[in-house]
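Students often ask why inverse folding is considered easier than folding. One informal answer: many sequences map to the same fold, so there is more than one right answer. In these notes we will look at a single instance of the problem. The structure comes first.
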């Protein structure tokens, strides 16, 4: 299994995955896979929940979802977060990420 393996867990209403948030970046972007987590760079500072709000909006927009379908379920005051996507399964999630970031998963999923 490659070092970059990204873990996605099914949950009752959708999927959950871990993310590492890097606040105060020059732009909002998904920058890769790091330690089995999706690395997300955000322009917001980690103050008064601003980075959490930006994270939810960014992930929702990136995946073409409503912000109400994206929740941070763990790590609200930490750079390591667990994000839940409601109403999306793993294959659609992977396909959406791969379509927008072709090099995100360098190893094939066969």
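Output (designed amino acids):
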């Amino acid at each position: 299994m490659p070092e970059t393996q990204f873990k996605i867990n099914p949950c009752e209403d959708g999927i959950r995955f871990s993310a590492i948030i890097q606040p105060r970046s020059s732009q909002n972007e998904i920058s890769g896979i790091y330690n089995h987590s999706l690395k997300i760079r955000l322009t917001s500072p980690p103050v008064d929940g601003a980075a959490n709000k930006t994270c939810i909006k960014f992930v929702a927009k990136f995946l073409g979802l409503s912000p109400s379908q994206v929740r941070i379920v763990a790590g609200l005051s930490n750079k390591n977060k667990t994000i839940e996507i409601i109403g999306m399964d793993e294959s659609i999630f992977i396909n959406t990420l791969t379509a927008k970031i072709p090099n995100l998963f360098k190893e094939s999923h066969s």
